[in-house]
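Worked Example 4.2. Read the sequence first, then its structure tokens.
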Amino acid sequence: HPQIVAGTGRLCTDLMAVCAGQVVAKVGAEGVYCAAVPAGGYGIALKVTSGDMRSAAVALVEVLRQLSARRAPALSLDGLAKHAARPILNTRQQRTGELRPAGALQFSDAVGG
């Protein structure tokens, strides 16, 4: 029941609904998100140093996208577009920019790496 975890429109709720049981996720405080992909045998703990929750959501979607491209199971994240990039608005509610992911994860093929 993803809707009881964080409420309507929140990334963890939407992520669990879109991924239909493949991902368990929970928002924390001050830029923290945690997620697990049980079938893939991995978990993610993410912390945005500034505490910005908007950035944390964007970062988590991108980390899951990159991991899913590299490791099984492949996750369909198509229904998460509103969390994958966020508009930056000025005081007049005009779009002045966008928060979006940049960079790539670095993977090590070494055991335990």
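Now turn to a second chain, presented in exactly the same format:
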Amino acid sequence: MMKTNFTLLVTLFASLLAAQSPTTQIQFEIEGYEEDFMAIANNLLDNQYIVDTVWRDDNGVFIYEREEAMSPGIYLAVMAPQNDYFQFLVTEEEQQFSIKNSVADQVKGAQIEGSQENEHFFSYLGYLQEAGERNQAMRAQLESEDLSMADKTRLERELTELDEQVKAHQEDWLVTAPNSFVTAIIKANKNVEPPSFEEISDTDARRSAQLRYLQEHYLDNLDLQDPRLLRTPFLFQRINFFVERLHVQAPDSISVAIDRVLGRMDTESETFKYYLIHYLNKAANSEFVGMDAIYVHLIDNYYAKGLAPWTEEEQLASFLDNANRLRPLLIGEIAPDIQMQTREGNSISLHEIDSEYTVLYFWRYDCGHCKESTPFMKEFYDKWQERGVTLFAVCAKNADDVGECWEYVDEKEIGDWLHTVDPYLRSRYAVKYDLQTTPQIYVLDANKEIVSKRISAEQLDELMELITAEEEEGR
């Protein structure tokens, strides 16, 4: 008679059950909610995304199940039809729990089972809700025209005390539950106050010192190594404020800010991946002049160094090629020299132009935007030719079409510009200047350094006024 290994059977059966049971199971029971479905959503960067839809079962309970674990973060239970929602937490450790509340009382009356983090979270939200209601009631009283001075003083004192109580409550979390997700949320939203720097008498110098302090310490309370913070509604706002409000919106300054943010992240984390991709896409699609320098910076310092392993080989090659094409054309670089030919057949190079400023203008006679730009360029030249500006125009056509370039010049009476073509070298200038569309405008200084580029003809006059004004101030 065959002997059965009972222990082995029990182990196999338990393993089978474990494989079949869901890793994530969250139950929602919402009193007063009549719809048959609800959505689960989360926050990622500056957007909210629907994760899944959950349907009511025969017992009136919404059960969200999935075999794979949910990524940690703050999630939303979204109710139809008005998209009202309440928030709840998901952590790596707590993926099976239940929330019972009501449409009328989503937070303070909520009952949580199986998740200490959500018990903490709903308790904290309930406290903030009560404090907010008290704050609102007192501020409403302060707006009363019949309020006595004594009552006004009392209410203002009570508002200050309430604010201090909320701060003290938050500080208690930092001490009593330092590793809680709620604590991480509180800390991440804690403002950094710069010193007064009273020892600095000059107002502008004092403000500069405070700004430098904020730049150095604003991220101190944001643990960018914490994967729970990625899917929260505040992380992007905090990081975006740091990059866009605490730093001058110039390529070099923005690149420094992004490096500070990414430098605080684990390079193998989702957070690092999402934010690196975000800033690369933003730089690539920016309409502001000069932001391609950020694109090149990110490619050179992250993608080219193997810090974006999720990038497919073909896409990475494209990124590197784009950066190589853009790098010589960044603001501050010496514009690539090009050897062109005038109408009379004389050879002339861009770098031999002796002028305080040179406007390099690529155009085509059959380009609609170029035709619209012509009167603006003509007006600009009439104004600036006596002010040290040379207009170096390149008709972006090959040898067979050069004749029509000159016909257009005659027709529009713009022959007093320096017009050039390239009938022999087959558009090498187009490669050097990554010329994919026309018109294209570059403003160069006396050393042929790129001062500005890829602006419209309508903006050119205003830009030159700013450039010359800044130059005069610097003298």
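Notes for the reader: Confidence is low (pLDDT under 50) at residues 8-19. The CA atoms of residues 188 and 223 lie 7 Å apart.
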